[in-house]
Design a protein that fits this description.
The complex is a heterodimer of chains A (91) and B (196). Chain A is mainly beta. Helices cover 10% and strands 41% of the residues of chain A. Chain B is 44% helix and 11% strand. The chains are: A mainly beta (91), B alpha/beta (196).
């Protein structure tokens, strides 16, 4: 893991690609902009582990989205736990 | 969202793999069931309820719990280290401003040590798909009316952390001791589909 971790408060955008196979980036949260609220440790990317790959740990974040940004409606928030590789960087 | 693992094909495949592993001596007879039993042993919502009651009576414990839950669980004789590795626990507190509710949209991730085995509705596709989009309606179906000026925060346990809701202490409970408070807390309260 060479990239710096995103600090809480950073606006980030999730990847939009629909990768083949298992992903812990839920479909409803793809291509969406949210805010990092907490760094939740470092773990190997589950998407890669599901493919049998031995990969290095990377930062995992709680990323909060406004429902309106995910679904086009709703006043609530949804907080999803995402790996660094699920994020395209500051939005 | 992935499908549910209820097909007889996958069940048959799992049984076949288990049988082959036993034939080759890699698994003892019934070892998987035994390991699951060991993992689930002691897992009950009464554990989560004890944590909540302690947080209600001890503001210092509450603050430490919300800051680093894993570090304070040993104070009430609990831990998240019952599985292959210790799981991170994040406790989220209900307040006047926000009501929290938990889901795992990808499968059924859940803090078994603190809440026991998960209820079947928690694993249903209906709950998992609807609560992220329209939590207010789903909560209403559980009989929970969230005031219009109280926000709702949905937490998707989609990765390594597990979550537990810290409900608000009910009014009129000032005279209750910690054990009596523990008895008020329900499994649904710890998931966020009940107020307590």
């Amino acid at each position: 893991m060479t990239r710096a971790a995103f600090a809480p408060g950073t606006r980030v955008r999730t990847r939009a690609a629909d990768r083949d196979g298992h992903s812990r980036l839920p479909r409803y949260a793809r291509g969406a902009t949210g805010t990092v609220v907490e760094v939740a440790g470092h773990h190997p990317l589950a998407d890669d582990r599901a493919r049998g790959l031995d990969v290095a740990p990377q930062p995992v974040y709680h990323v909060r989205f406004r429902a309106a940004d995910l679904f086009g409606a709703g006043e609530h928030t949804v907080t999803v736990e995402l790996w660094h590789d699920h994020l395209e960087g500051p939005a | 969202m992935s499908g549910e693992h209820h097909s007889s094909d996958i069940s048959a495949r799992v049984r076949r793999v288990e049988a082959l592993l036993e034939e080759r001596g890699l698994l003892g007879p019934g070892e998987i069931d035994q390991r699951i039993d060991e993992f689930a042993a002691g897992g009950t919502p009464a554990n989560g309820a004890r944590v909540v009651a302690r947080a209600w009576v001890d503001p210092g414990f509450r603050a430490r719990l919300l800051d680093d839950a894993n570090a304070v669980l040993p104070e009430v004789g609990l831990s998240m280290a019952g599985g292959l590795q210790e799981q991170r626990l994040k406790v989220v507190a209900n307040t006047d401003d926000v009501h929290n509710v938990l889901v795992c949209t990808l499968c059924s991730c859940y803090p078994i040590a603190l809440l026991g085995p998960s209820p079947s509705w928690y694993k249903s596709e209906a709950y998992r798909s609807r609560v992220v989009r329209d939590p207010r309606s789903v909560l209403a179906e559980f009989g929970v009316t969230v005031p219009p000026d109280t926000g709702i925060a949905v937490w998707d346990a989609s990765a390594e952390s597990r979550y537990m809701v810290l409900p608000r202490r009910p009014a009129g409970t000032d005279d209750l001791d910690e054990a009596e408070l523990t008895a008020l807390v329900t499994r649904r309260g710890l998931i966020g589909t009940a107020l307590v």
